């Protein structure tokens, strides 16, 4: 939309114009600047020390006025003086009650205002209209070519990208349907001849938000110009931290005890706990020092032969999968969904229709006669049950089988050949992600096997299975 043409990308302002824009809008810098690191221009802009920053430094390196912070609340504020923005927000409805929804619609409006093919009376210009022109096109995997995405087969990133693309397409169609009745939207966004908005535009505003959103104390998820120019590093390598001051401004502070030399990079953390898949998905990179996938999320499905399968799907309020995480020497796992799979009617699970206040009927789940209002609470009920070890054994067996399936997929694909049209960055990221996820899943499978062997020897499991001595025939624990 604000592009000159697909080959030329989004209209951009040179980074040399960034500081004048920032200072004009009240941003202050103390010993730092925004620019490219010499020798690393391919990485784009970052925050760089203009002088030696010494231990014990307490003055903020950067102060960004609260009026520049892009949050759900600030979007509502902009809409008070921008009738076209308000029209869109009101028409789209509930979706824009979230930070992400409100900010994406706002970014789309700023792109509209900047589009040379749309009249200047659409939308109201504000400081952030210019800011988006400083942002690079993010190299996220949703923009990888089909051939590059094929490198991800067997990894969890492949399914994450597919789910994201489906979600973005649903959002885009919702925006279109909700705003088609607005005359200027119909003409300048959706018209076959004059319309400027495409699905690719929606992908770009999503990438802007996804790669730059920060969670600020007292504000929540938001975009903070200037601070979001800082690159990521984790652990002790993180140089600075961000927070809000007593006036609601965003400030960038040197971490206690840190010493930074002139021309060194000022880094923040995007989240030390984020796994390899999430780092590539949201930011398009992972740290070179990363030696573990950290977190892997695998989907789970309820077996087709489960008589309660439709009912379980209908009442489930939790993510249909489980999370494996690196705990150092061992791995761990978390899932609310798996407990719903491993119990059935003979254990005490039941379903029934209850009358609602509006006169309708709603399917509800029950555990041993008591209503189960939230399926995420099922684990706590099972934990208090005499057969807790039995339920654990069932869950672990299910998880182990799913992990083995994922490992088979990774081993079957192996290391794909690098095609002539595959770029180096996607190739290297896909190869490293495959290696890291393979390592974590293999460790998790071994750890689950150890847990399973312990549970098999528990008294409650042996009683449940009718095992009285070592000489009994082997049982099928699946």
TrEMBL record:
InterPro entries cross-referenced by the UniProt entry: SET_dom, SET_dom_sf, SETD3_SETD6_MTase
Domain SET residues, every copy: 30-271
One Gene Ontology CC term in the entry: nucleus
Protein name: SET domain-containing protein
GO MF assignments: protein-lysine N-methyltransferase activity
CDD domains: SET_LSMT (cd10527)
